[in-house]
Amino acid sequence: MSFALAIAGRKSALLLFATLETLVVGTAWYQYRHSNLPLGKPKSHIPSGRFYG
Is 9 left (phi over 0), alpha (psi -120 to 50) or beta? Predict the structure, then answer.
């Protein structure tokens, strides 16, 4: 009985962890993508030789 409870508890904890991790990764990716959207355009117009040349 306690073994089944341990498995059920571990399953719900894993589900909670996966949900939280998905939220964190999704939020970070969303912020990264939207913060880099305006910065990506001017960067592409600057010749790379100016930085590495």
Answer: alpha
pLDDT at 30: 86
- For 25-50, what is the mean pLDDT? 68
Going by C-alpha positions, the residue among 18, 42, 22 that lies closest to residue 30 is: 22
Q: Mapping DSSP to helix (H, G, I), strand (E, B) and coil, where does residue 46 land?
A: coil
CA dist., res. 50 & res. 18, Å (int):
44
| pLDDT higher than threshold 80 for residue 9 | yes
CA atoms of 5 and 12, how far apart (whole Å):
11
